[in-house]
Amino acid sequence: MKNIYKAIIKKTTLYSLLIAAATGVTSGVRAQETPKEEDFYKILKVSSPEGTLLEVGGLTVLPNGNLGVSTRRGEVYIVENPTSRKPYFRKFATGLHEILGLVWKDGAFYCAQRGELTKLEDTNMDGKADVYETVFAWPLSGHYHEYSFGPKLAPDGSFFVSGNVAFGNQEWWRGESRVPWRGWMMHIFPDGHMEPYATGFRSPCGLGMINGELFYTDNQGDWFGSGGVWQVKQGDFIGHPAGLRWTNQPNSPVKLTAEKFYSFVDEGRPKDANGNYTKPENSTTAPFVTLMDVKKNIPELRLPAVVLPHGIQGISNSEIVQIPEGSFGPFAGQLLVGDQGQSKIMRVVMEKVKGEYQGVSFDLRNGFQSGVLRMAWSKDGSTLFVGETNRGWGSAGEANEGLQRLVWNEKMPFEMKTIKAMPDGFEIEFTLPVNKKSAEDLASYSVESFTYKYHSVYGSPMVNIAKCPVKGVKVSEDGLKARIIVDSLRKDYVHNITLEGVREKDNSYSLVHPTGYYTIHNFPDGDKLPLSQASTFNSAKVQAAAAAEKAKATAKDAAKGTTAAAKTAAAPAVAKVPTYDEVKPLLAKYTCVACHTANKRQVGPAFVDVAKRKYTGEQILKLLANPKPQNWPDYATEMPPMPQVPRADGLKIAAWINSLK
Amino acid sequence: MLLRSKNHASRSLMGILCLCGVGMTVAHSAAAQTGKLPLQDLSAFREPGQSWSITSDASAKLDNPHVLDAVAGTGVLFNMPDKKRPGKDLFSSAEFGDADIELDYMMAPGSNSGIYLQGRYEIQLLDSWGTKAPKAGDNGGIYERWDDSRPNGLQGYDGHAPRVNASKAPGTWQHIKISFIAPRFDAAGKKIANARMLLVELNGVTIQENVELMGPTRGAIGGGDEKATGPLRLQGDHGAVAFRNIVINKPDVSRPSNERDRGVDPILVDAPVNTLLRSFMDVKDNYRIVHAISVGSPEKVHYTYDLDKGMIAQVWRGEFLDATPMWHERGNGCSRPRGAVQFLGKSYFTLGKLASPQAAWTTDTTGSGFRPKGYVLDDNDLPTFRYQVYGTSVSDVVRVVSEGRGIHRELSVAASVEGLYAKLAEGAAIENPSKDLYVIDGKSYYLQLEDAGGEKPVIRDGAGVKELIIPVRSKLSYSILF
Predict the structure, then answer these.
(1) pTM value?
(2) Of A286, A308, A318, which Cα lies nearest the Cα of A455?
(3) CB A636 to CB B329 under 8 A?
(4) Cβ–Cβ of B276/A392 closer than 8 Å?
(5) pLDDT of residue A153
(6) H or E element that contains A9
(7) Among A192, A319, B288, B399, whose CB has the most other CB atoms within 10 angstroms?
(8) CA–CA separation, B99 vs B92, rounded Å?
């Protein structure tokens, strides 16, 4: 009896799988409406007095729980009871020159202004600073882009401050270091002396001191194909050649000279017929090098620990903070990275493999009212304060500045907790147990790897894109881990690991964020997973087979003249308007999503607004290659040219845009 | 219009009619001199009164009101009324309609004068040094109109106060630019458009802009009438005043306005209380001070301190700062003063070590150990700047002088340094009219030495400038009155 039941169950399961496969659903049960980010993380306002302009450049929490806020207009506020319904703002200091960082140490604030690291102290205890002491002043040329970020406090009480490069007057696209130490990381000591620490920086806006080690983020620009998270050690060269100008100074720990650099790397300064420098543009045909290619000749070149793919994981990455123990549930101890353009926060998890940091980044929460520049955790770990400004560049969101806070409602989201590298693939840890069927189906996973060019052109498209076949998967007993065997993984490449098909066990929810971007630098030692121990079931293959069968049958019917059957044939012959699902991967691949959404104005106009212009497909292709910012005078940031979008994909995107109302 | 006349007499009549503007709606200063008025003698003026003369320079003593002292020579139009030479207004022989007028003038302490466009519309000149809230009767105001028939106390009306008090101290040369549009008349002689003060700029500050003049101001010639042209009239019966570099031109129709600021809401920083603001600061010759801090006061006297040099770079009177360049959109890090600026010299170290009193002034920090240390605020939020140089600590205290007449500075050096000098001022000329009083840069401002620490200041030649330097032992204090 038992065996009959078993057989029946086995058969029904198989049939339901087939039916499910044929109808395009990879799990045996239909998914309910999956909760989104906003169902777990709430963005709240920090109430401030009317008219207080909070273009936040620095944020820190004091030992007594008060919040220190510094602004572009040179003010430092102390916010008392910052998590209450009536936070109290006290103006502590004023008149500084654009503060872009704030820390508290031994009863005083330390902040980086444009021109110096300043100590602010209230010695007469009237609630306002009376000592504005110059800890260290650095040279400036007065170029507007010479921002100085920081400080971050090292375990020994010293400070790190980074310097943005300036740009040329005629060659406005080219970062240059006009005075020492622009494009450098400065290590400043309490006694006021400074040791140059590392160079190769371009726009080192987000510093992070994680477990006593210095990290930073930079964003796409000349010599930076994409943004990312870098560890910074003394003597490092991060990649932008501007700062190499000062490596001949006696106290420079970087010995690489600009001459030596350009002997390995093309300077990339094209000239026109009249001998004037022109802006270098991306070529889709010319040969190129990557950071890892160049590192072979320049060992001091430090690769990003975790690449944050431009347009997808931010466009202007900012501060790095660590989630404290006991906060944000499963993500305690992981890193958060802000983004100033997409007004969102990403979650980065690093691991050390063979002595080098690498790791993965996921989306966490978008929807902040302005560009996320600074973050600080409340003393009790319940709230993340988020300081925002787009500083005159466009950003997603409805405002140019803001001070908000992010709280978790303690409900467990179904997410990838982390992804770890394996000798032969990856191991994904989940926050909730998975539905085994969905997790043991290879069709639920897709892995693709890519990298970026290393050149003088502003940014880089994704290059060398290749699929990484997922060969097998083994799900742990408790359903919390899935180990995938993946082929064609590449060192130093970014791997897009997407789990569209994995479902949560109890409610069949999809993952709130189904994609992680893992940058591999080293493969860990250890045992490979034998294929025999893994599931190799692939519902897509089953579905394809079934569809093929169906196509054969309908073809026969069509030959017999059954129009109804012909109508249900697999692929329609007439080209129809692409659906959002069809263009969604293209929009991500070509980073349209960095600046555009369908309906809401972001850094760039909403696609519905583009549709209103009634451009033909051909016109859109032309504009993609050569955007005309004069058509959109209301937008602060010019669209960079996208000549790398191939014709067919460009027309597809254009058709979809034009279909929007 | 072609004037055909074989008759010489009628031709000259036509000429006079043209001059007077009869039958024409707009009179161009056809026969009027344009360009710089020569001041070798008084020939440009009609029947000059006895108080008027030609000199090469003028000067005043701050404690000697209503008196200007002359320096013999030419180039300056000088008015010093007294019992023997009673004051009288001065009229140009030529007449003008629309006109751009630019000139320098110097007031004696407590003095009163005026510039009348067409002899009818007066821009008041007054010693308004230190006045916080200027009225129509203050320096740069459009003087009131007068109607006897109005109720008592209200007979004066329609005067237009300057936007700010951009005045300088008496005995200094002040600079004014006036752009005037004459009234317009139809063929019948009826006025169809009012006269306008298109622009009045005093010491670099716009104090009047596009003000419509409903009628002539008090004391106009012509008994209240208005005409297409009239003489330039300088008031001489109210006090001692001197003029020079008088330039009169037809208005430039292609006037470049502040195009770059069009459509942008200005972001202004006022100083109702003592206010500090760091920014980049562009000064003369496009030099950008990168570590600059400006200090503003409710007394309307402000200064910019260059932290890289320990130097007061400029002082000004008026409102505090325009921060639009640094805070609008991406910004460029700079702010601008909103007042009459007295530039104090191009970027030099206030303290320098000299091998000898003739040695060239220090130009860089090599060997000096110069380290800025920031500042400390007192209970009124007033800063004391601190820095280290030549192995010693320096504190630099700048405060506004009473009645907003200028700033007072006190430098203290902790340990004496051999060969340490302070450079107090530089300029095209440095005069020393009385003990401890210096007049800098061709009578641009005064420097009053207070505590010289027992040392003697020296006027000497620098690199293309005159320099005032003094040895410094431990203390030095002086005032800049401007």
Answers:
(1) 0.87
(2) A286
(3) yes
(4) no
(5) 98
(6) helix A2-22
(7) A319
(8) 13
